[in-house]
Amino acid sequence: MPARNRRLPRDLSWPLTTSDIRSALGEQVTNAADLGFDNRPHDDGTLLHVEWIPPISSNYGSGIHPALWYSVRICVAPLPATERAVARRALQQHALPELASWIGAARRAPEGWTLTRRSRCWRVTGSTTAYRDDWQPYR
Fold this sequence. Notes:
By secondary structure, the chain is an alpha+beta fold. The protein has 4 helices and 7 strands.
């Protein structure tokens, strides 16, 4: 990330870039996703988070805009800069292919599944990753 766009202290770094995610998911999926980068590390070690956005409306104007219904929100969390290389490699090898599969399965899921908010998170454990679905414990 260029220094002019940097929102992190020098001791923190994001393990993945927008280009990493685009190359893993393909341009079409990436254009239909909301991609963000957190400013603070997560207490539980989560580095990559994806959330399915169901159709949620509100009578008071605080619902999710219909243009975002049936899409995904992807978020990358920072980690200490000294851990970036190991985390990047593990996320690219394990989490990004799983992310692409999860998004594909979400788009083909039955209506009942798509009407509920769903999520999956990944964190690095050694040289691989662990994940959790819908805020359950990591496996």
